[in-house]
């Protein structure tokens, strides 16, 4: 199994390199499934062109990427001896490595915890306990790299990949017990796309769960995590301010995410509704939609308080479904984490239906887009139906897994 998985890894990397060399990125960059106004490589190129002319990229209404990311790619385009596409390939390899390490560390921690608490368990629960599976780490690498969503995100040079890298590294370092590094990467993910700010809740609980043998008082523990997170967040914002010399980026990035002024069709649920709603109702429904992303954190945190890693997985699915400008890269992350609970797959219901919904949405979405925008044979309702189906395809496995034996 391991050799077969690594053959698949080699094939997926070869596919990425081939697509980069064949300039497929130029087509994928314009696909709304892969790039959004926040993560589009075309808009980063626009920002770099403005900087080269001595103009702030935030003077207009085109660039909505964070300053540090723009400066990163400015340096990369100047000094890297290879195409920027290979930088995204390296990020994908970094994510795959982190997923492998997460699988190894997570299994060891859960098995160790189960052995110490086995006397408290009821009889007949062995079938739902985690067992050490030496093939799982390689399988997670294989499933992530072979996923068409992750391939499209990498080749399309969507900066969603930076947020994905930050989230998986925060989970890895939280499982390893490093407060500074885990909060750094949560702050970085929040800095890049705002919505991962909710992940500080499961990250805090993971730290508390990892230190179960020598737990400190909860209040002091929560304060330590919170102060570390705030410190990194303030530092990132201050570095951004010093880089561009103004606070324009705050409104251009986070104001854009929260106010959703751009109704360009995407995989989310915002664009269609706010394209039709009356202006005097817009603010009310805007608050409702944005709060909707975070409101589910409370019941999920209470329900999954003893399983914080799974809570993080559920939060990642919530972000990919309800954020204002989602892409397929947001879906690739929770799908990559799902095999951590493969021992529970046999208890899931409606897996075939959920898989078919996600597959059907992936296929018919581009078809309906072409029929609507290019051919003009249908209206926006068809493409919105595909995006709703895409969201339902994500909700189904998340719902089924959340209310299993927990």
Indicate the topology:
Blueprint (H helix, E strand, L loop, with lengths): L1 H20 L3 H4 L12 H12 L14 H13 L4 H33 L19 H11 L1 H8 L4 H16 L3 H15 L6 H11 L7 H27 L3 H12 L10 H7 L2 H17 L1 H7 L4 H15 L5 H10 L13 H25 L4 H23 L4
Helix pairs in contact: 1-6, 5-6, 5-8, 6-17, 7-17, 8-9, 8-10, 9-11, 10-16, 14-16, 16-17, 16-19, 18-19
In short:
The protein has 406 residues and is an all-alpha fold. It is built from 19 helices and no strands. It is globular, with a radius of gyration of 21 Å.
Give a verbal description of the structure.
- By secondary structure, the chain is mainly α.
- 70% of the residues lie in helices and 0% in strands.
- The chain has helices at residues 2-21, 25-28, 41-52, 67-79, 84-116, 136-146, 148-155, 160-175, 179-193, 200-210, 218-244, 248-259, 270-276, 279-295, 297-303, 308-322, 328-337, 351-375, 380-402.
- The longest helix is centred in the N-terminal third of the chain and has 33 residues, at 84-116.
- The two termini are 30 Å apart.
- The relative contact order is 0.11.
- The model has no long low-confidence stretch (mean pLDDT 87).
């Amino acid at each position: 199994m391991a050799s077969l998985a690594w053959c698949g890894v080699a094939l997926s990397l070869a596919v990425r390199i081939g697509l980069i060399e064949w300039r497929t990125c130029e087509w994928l960059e314009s696909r709304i499934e892969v790039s959004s106004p926040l993560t589009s490589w075309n808009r980063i190129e626009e920002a770099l062109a403005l900087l080269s002319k001595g103009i702030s990229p935030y003077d207009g209404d085109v660039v909505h990427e964070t300053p540090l990311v723009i400066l990163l790619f400015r340096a990369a385009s100047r000094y890297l001896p290879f195409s920027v596409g290979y930088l995204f390939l390296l990020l994908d390899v970094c994510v795959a490595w982190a997923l492998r390490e997460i699988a190894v560390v997570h299994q060891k921690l859960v098995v160790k915890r189960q052995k110490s608490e086995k006397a408290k368990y009821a009889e007949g629960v062995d079938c739902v306990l985690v067992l050490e599976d030496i093939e799982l780490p390689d399988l997670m690498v294989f499933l992530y790299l072979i996923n068409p969503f992750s391939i499209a995100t990498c080749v399309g040079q969507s900066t969603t990949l930076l947020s994905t890298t930050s989230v998986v590294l925060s989970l890895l370092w939280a499982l390893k017990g490093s407060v500074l590094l885990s909060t750094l990467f949560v702050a970085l993910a929040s800095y890049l796309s705002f919505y991962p700010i909710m992940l500080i809740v499961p990250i805090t609980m993971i730290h508390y769960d990892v230190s179960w043998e020598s737990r400190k008082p909860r209040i002091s523990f929560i304060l330590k995590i919170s102060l570390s997170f705030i410190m990194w967040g303030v530092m990132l914002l201050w570095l951004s301010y010093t880089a561009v010399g103004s606070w324009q980026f705050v409104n251009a990035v986070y104001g854009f995410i929260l106010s959703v002024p751009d109704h360009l069709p995407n995989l989310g649920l915002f664009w269609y509704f706010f394209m039709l709603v009356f202006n005097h109702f817009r603010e009310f429904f805007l608050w409702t939609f944005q709060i909707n992303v975070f409101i589910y954190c409370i019941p999920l945190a209470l329900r999954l308080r003893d399983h914080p890693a799974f809570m993080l997985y559920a939060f990642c699915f919530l972000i990919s479904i309800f954020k204002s400008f989602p892409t397929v890269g947001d879906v690739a992350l929770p799908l990559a984490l799902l095999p951590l609970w493969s021992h529970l797959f046999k208890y899931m219901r409606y897996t075939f239906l959920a898989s078919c919904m996600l597959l059907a949405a992936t296929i018919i979405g581009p078809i309906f887009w072409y029929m609507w925008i290019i051919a003009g044979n249908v209206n926006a309702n068809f493409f919105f139906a595909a995006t709703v189906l895409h969201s339902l395809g994500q909700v189904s496995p998340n719902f089924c897994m959340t209310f299993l034996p927990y």
